[in-house]
């Protein structure tokens, strides 16, 4: 398979390490990272026609309607000059079908991190709201428990990071993503990558990509 034909997608729950794994992939293999959320945020920031149209959905956490989303992302894909990694699209069965008709994928990377690991990770996250500094009790603890290193002010926990909220978000993700997972599994291109951390998952993803992408065409960069 020619490198420029390589088409892939990455699936993973919120805080599963999808961002970390995606950036390692795009650095190592020089793929175009097509993140639907990032692309939409850029449109919104630039106040384009599409940005104005979608902001009413994104601002309330609702899915952008399929017809708008499909047109927008297929256009981004068709503009890509090399291989790509989709992120955040497709999210519904009809997005899967539209994508598959026009651009069948080679690989769907599914990150599988136990929910209790994600909840635990997020539970230990504390922020200093005025500066946005983020700490994690496990691997980036503040010098004094509960206090910001720079100002000594109190740290707080985001409402979104509370275990019960994270649990709900994960359940919502699972319910909404199941049809997408089923679709790619039926097509025979879904690969599950299980682990508790990105460092545990990454070597497995790397090994799989090396099997799919001719090695002489990968970047020399060490990740
Ligand atoms: P994300 O950063 O991937 O969570 O995307 C941010 C927001 O963009 C979502 O909450 C949706 O409103 C919208 N969005 C991104 N991707 C899609 C998609 N594939 N289908 C529908 N809406 C999407």
Strand percentage lies at 5-15%
Number of domains: 1
Structural class estimated from helices and strands: alpha/beta
Helix content: 40-55%
List bound small molecules: adenosine monophosphate
CATH class descriptor: Alpha Beta
Query: H/E order of the elements?
Result: EHEHHHEHEHEEHEH
Q: How do the strands of the widest beta sheet line up side by side?
A: 2-3-1-4-7
- Fourth-tier CATH superfamily name: P-loop containing nucleotide triphosphate hydrolases
> So what's the overall shape?
globular
| Major sheet attributes | 5 strands, parallel
The quaternary structure here is: single chain
CATH topology: Rossmann fold
CATH architecture field: 3-Layer(aba) Sandwich
Radius of gyration: 19 Å
- Report the total helices: 8
* Termini separation: 24 Å
Low-confidence stretches: none
The strand count comes to 7
